[in-house]
Amino acid sequence: MTGRARLARQARRGVLVALCALLGVAEARSQDAAVVEDIVTGSRVLAEFGVLDGFGHVSARDPANPNHFLMARSLAPALVTSGDIMEFDLDGNAVDAKGRSVFLERFIHSEIYKARPDVMAVVHTHSPGVIPFTVSQVALRPVFHNAAFLAAGTPVWDIRKEFGETDMLVRNAEIGRTLAAALGDKAVVLMRGHGDAAVGPSVKVAVFRAYYTDVNARLQSQAIALGGEVNYLTAAEGAKADAINLQVLDRVWNLWKMRVAAQGK
Ligand code: MN
Question: Model's pTM, two decimal places?
Answer without folding.
Answer: 0.88
